[in-house]
Design a protein that fits this description.
The protein has about 190 residues and is mainly α. It has seven helices and no strands.
């Protein structure tokens, strides 16, 4: 009779552990989804700012068509992947291309002193800088969340429960090209 109670006690402890680990994995997966949604919010804000920035800049930069087109094309591709549910890697690459195109645009602005003094441009530039910072923080939060989830899906004993219940490691939002790892050199002085 004592052996039966010991076995039932062990089974009870195992069931409680299974439930606790499973709920922890669900919480981490939901954190990753939330973090990704926060990136989407900031990217949407960036997509909304770019047309206003482009309209302000177009009047001054008549000879910089290639730069303006590269920003527009990069924005359209990034927005298309965002609404089409592209993979994290594809979206990451498209967002880095957009950041690079914006950096080139802001560098070209140096040649247009009237534009640099335009209040609309200055306000949009400030909004874009703020948005880029928020995107950076959101990406960091996403990657931190992915790290926690991936650790749980790979560490014992939660890796057993993760494989039984279908939890998988998530993909990090990362920069792959070395030139994209370097910050664009922009001087507004």
């Amino acid at each position: 009779m004592l052996a039966l109670w010991v076995i039932l006690g062990i089974l009870g402890v195992l069931i409680v552990m299974f439930i606790a680990i499973y709920n922890g994995l669900v919480r981490l997966r939901n954190q990753v989804k939330n973090a990704w949604a926060q990136i989407d919010v900031q990217l949407k804000r960036r997509y909304d700012l770019i047309p206003n920035l482009m309209d302000t800049v177009k009047g001054y930069m008549k000879h910089e068509r290639e730069t303006l087109e590269s920003v527009t094309n990069a924005r359209n591709l990034a927005q298309q992947l965002s609404s089409g549910g592209g993979s994290v890697g594809a979206r990451s690459k498209a967002e880095m291309e957009l950041s690079s195109a914006l950096g080139r645009l802001l560098a070209v602005v140096e040649n247009y002193p009237d534009l640099k003094a335009n209040q609309n441009f200055l306000a949009l530039q400030e909004e874009l800088t703020s948005t880029e910072n928020k995107i950076s923080f959101s990406r960091q939060f996403y990657n931190d969340s992915v790290l926690r989830l991936n650790n749980q899906t790979e560490m014992f004993p939660s890796n057993i429960i993760a494989s039984i219940t279908g939890f998988k490691a998530e993909e990090f939002f990362e920069v792959t090209a070395t030139e994209e790892r370097e910050a664009p050199k922009v001087n507004f002085t």
